[in-house]
Amino acid sequence: MKCILLADVKGLGKKDDIVEVNDGYARNFLLKKKLACEATADNMNKNKLKKGSEAEHARRVLEEARANGKLLDGKTVTLKVKTGEGGRLYGAVTAMDVADAIKKAGFDVDKKNVIIKNPIKSLGTYEVTAKLHTQVSVKVNVEVVAGE
Q1: Superfamily of 69-146 according to CATH
Q2: Are strands 2-5 and 88-93 parallel, antiparallel or unpaired?
Q3: Is the pTM of this model over 0.85?
């Protein structure tokens, strides 16, 4: 029986693959657990349309990330932090602090996508990497200044 996988199935295939399996395996496991549907002409057309719209959406998201990357690349964001003697910080500047500063500048970046090579523990300007998409990463300058 031909089936269209609705989810990744270990040892069989990935989502949206069309696979040939035994009738019993399809009826008793794949169809029952909603891991697959029968590969009828109607379902095949729906699958093609779905793949096309998903590809179009992924392309739009990538274009948007590239456009934002061009605007953000090389930009400087400023962080005001509490300091002690000699310009040393109380604690360190974290990825969350940098992500918040980038968000205030108008760009949506998650803290998991901000990469700081070395801990930022003193005043100055540092370069960090922000990943806007799996294929788009940009360098952002972070200026740490004394404040409050």
Answers
A1: Ribosomal protein L9, C-terminal domain (3.10.430.100)
A2: unpaired
A3: no
